[in-house]
Amino acid sequence: MDLSNFFDDWSTVKIIAGVLDLLIVWYVLYLLITVFKGTKAIQLLKGIVVIVIGQQVSKMLNLTATSRLFDLVIQWGVLALIVIFQPEIRRALEQLGRGSLFKRYSTSLNSDEDKLISSVSKAVQYMAKRRIGALIVFEKETGLQDYIETGIPMNSDISQELLTNVFIPNTPLHDGAMIVQENKIASAASYLPLSDSAKIAKSLGTRHRAAVGISEVSDAFTVVVSEETGSISVTFDGKLRKDISNEAFEELLAEHWFGTHFQKKGVN
User: Which residues form the DAC domain (predicted)?
Assistant: First the structure.
């Protein structure tokens, strides 16, 4: 056995392991920044950086009492951070758990799925043209039973007429969210958590904030029709896409509802 080759190979392995280690650390930091960006937590992170810098400066200047104080703050701050960052930590873990690495997509819809997509699309277009406000949530992997129970149970088949009638102004069920479970309307007038993200424009109303809120705590896909402008927006993975076309809406709905990747002709 050639020992020189063995050590050369071992050195190469150590270099590769070191590079991989750095890449993992940078990726984790990137994920943390992505999760915290646009939330109140980013301001707390800035405060943590100030504390760490203050600790190092106090040690360099031999400020014993100040250094001890910073040490105590950092020592007990870990528990405080878990409590303070609980919503962000939960959201990060949920996003990690519902990652798309092992998801499988098809490239076509069957006839039943195509009919459902068409019914929802026509209802959304009808409401958008007449500026009828609507909020429809499509459940995916994360269960929404807690939110379904806050509304009026329906367990109804999906149709264009029913979707439209639920959101007609001044009717008993128009205020709140409709939640779709598999291929059924599970509930209407349900309450959703409101997002406190600073990235949501102040011009947007409660429906949009609720749509972003449910996408932050679950993997649900949500469509919002604005009663002020008639524009169509969707939310997923904590992101809001505003003023999308009907073709883009149908593509996104098919992808998130049925796991189907397809592209309509003429749509980029």
Answer: 86-246
Taking CA atoms, 35 is separated from 87, 90, 220, in Å, by 10, 10, 17
Give CA–CA dist 95/217, Å, rounded.
9
Is-contact 233 248, C-beta < 8 A?
Answer: no
Residue with token string 């883009």: 248
pLDDT tens across 227-241, in order? 999 999 999 988 899
Determine if residue 126 is left, alpha or beta; phi over 0 gives left, psi from -120 to 50 gives alpha, anything else beta: alpha
For the entire predicted model, the pTM comes to 0.66
pLDDT tens, residue by residue, 25-42 = 888 777 666 655 555 566
* Residue 192, C-beta contacts closer than 8 angstroms, at least 6 positions apart: 135, 137, 147, 176, 177, 210, 211, 213, 214
Of 194, 221, 216, nearest to 120 by C-alpha is: 221
Q: Is 175 exposed, middle or buried (0-12, 13-18, 19+ CB in 10 A)?
A: middle
Q: Where are the domains of the chain?
A: 3-97, 111-258
CA dihedral 190, 193, 194, 198 (to 10 degrees): -150
Distances (CA, A) of 157 to 40, 98, 118, 180: 41, 28, 14, 10
